[in-house]
Structure formats: structure tokens, C-alpha cells
Design a protein that fits this description.
Radius of gyration: 15 Å
Strand order of the largest sheet: 1-2
């Protein structure tokens, strides 16, 4: 079985004159060889 790791990825969203930081959850799966 592999392992899944949850990582918070920081995205900068440019909306007009505002810069809004957003956090998205990304799952990284690493299978065992």
C-alpha cells in the first residue's frame, strides 16, 4: 500500500487591485515499489 500526504498549496489570486491568498488542499500519493 502507498501513502497519501495532504499538502496546503498557497495560491495568489489577483482580483483587480486586490491580492487574495488562497489555500487549496492537494493530495500527493506515493506508491510503494
Amino acid at each position: 500500500m502507498g501513502s497519501a500526504m495532504y499538502v496546503d498549496v498557497h495560491w495568489w489570486c489577483y482580483t483587480g487591485d486586490l491580492i487574495t491568498p488562497r489555500f487549496n488542499h492537494v493530495v500527493i500519493y506515493t506508491p510503494d515499489e
